[in-house]
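Sequence only, no structure available. Ideas?
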Amino acid sequence: MISAVNKIQEFMKEQKVNFLLVNSTNKYLEEYTPLEENSRYFLTDFSGSTGDALVTQDAVYLFVDGRYHIQADLEVNHDIVTVVKLQTGQIFLDELIKRIPQGETLGVFSKKNSQKRVEYLAEKGIDLKYFDVDPLDKTVFYDSSNVVQVQGVPVEEKVKDISLDGAVLITNLEEVSYLFNLRDFSKKYSSKIRGKAVILSGRARLLDDIDDFVESYQGNIFIDKSTINAYDFSLIGSKAKILSDSPIKLMKSVKTDDEIKHYIEAFKKTDNAVCAIRDYIENNDNISEFDISEQLEKEFKRFGAKSLSFKSIVAKDKNSALAHYSKCSKDEIIQNGSLILIDCGAYYEQGLATDITRVFVKGSPSELQKRVYTTVLKMFLNAYNSDLKTGYEIDNLARKIYSENEIEGFVFNHGLGHGIGVSVHEYPPNLSKNDMAKVEIKDNMCFTIEPGLYNENHFGVRLENSCYMKDGKIRSFVHMNYEKKLIDFSLLTEQEKVWLKEFEVL
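Reply:
I predicted one. Tokens follow.
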């Protein structure tokens, strides 16, 4: 890490900038960028999926949201890195701007920031200097020989009604993978292919890069500024026409009935794998977080998984208070009374990501464990059975339930849920306090509902079901199991008990 900091600060001296933004993304702007492509990880040792760094000549600031406050504190060297903990509602870029004095220039890597992001900074009065090359980048080669065709609406059918005065450039990897019905299982925790697409005259072409196309094409090129990096945008220049949204975004988010059927089967397999792990925990002594993680991957493969959709979270006791804990330590041994949170998912033959979270306890639970578990369950049941149409409203309802059943020291510090599909996190839909969650959830949109309560001195509980909307009602892909011994039925209302009967209780 120290060498990375020195390298970046030397680069800043050479380029005569006093402030530099170091990203967690790659040129495809992926949220879950592999660590070997993640410059922010090299710089700070923080391994979370999101969170960027601001570097000065004498300081490194790491900005993280509520999911990663504890994890960042544990992973970084505090003598070098200052962790800036964003609270709910705080915007990262606004907090970054506060640390840049007026008149100073901010260096940004043009291939790792969206055009929308750099324009936001410019509109706030920040003078930007663009760099095409990140000195912390490492050469990484991926074998894409495992690209497969999956069943889906033919690409010609998807694009036939996209009619604009020019070409439409698609740069979001989930959209590109969806458009061509292609998946790549050669990379960890992903089924996305790497490439870009151009739609023109009712046809679509897959591109490795856009340089040759942009140079040869003389017409308008329509783009979504939130998904195209600033470097590619600069290549397009005056040919650029702005879309409010990619025409593929909504198409991708509204699944076909066949995709819903696949998802139902995929979640059955995922639930079976997690149930097997529950038995493994109950029937084995002296096992660690690492042992459980290894066994879980074996169970996924037994049920036909192509790969994991993300690195499994297996967290005992205090570790479960880290929303995105990723260590899975060999030294963390499960004891009698240990609470274990498991957040996991996989890809099956269709290449759609599953995602569920369950909490178990070895032996008998404590009264506090039962109270927290039951409160989280109440939050889920009320959100799941609501007739609300936006993720913003559903999120507010879950928070209201907690405010009426508050437990001292425990916080709900993340959004209620996210869209799922080709990637484990997709938009739309979204369930949170953000404006993006105010979009109506349409039939056949797929998403998670995952309330959680966390106390870093005790433990965390998160219960996550993946769902879809059908005929205006939220439905679970599978009636996944809840842990009876962790439920305090006296805390449930009669209505909540009726709702609970829809699910398995073990």
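The mean pLDDT is 94.
Hope that gets you unstuck.
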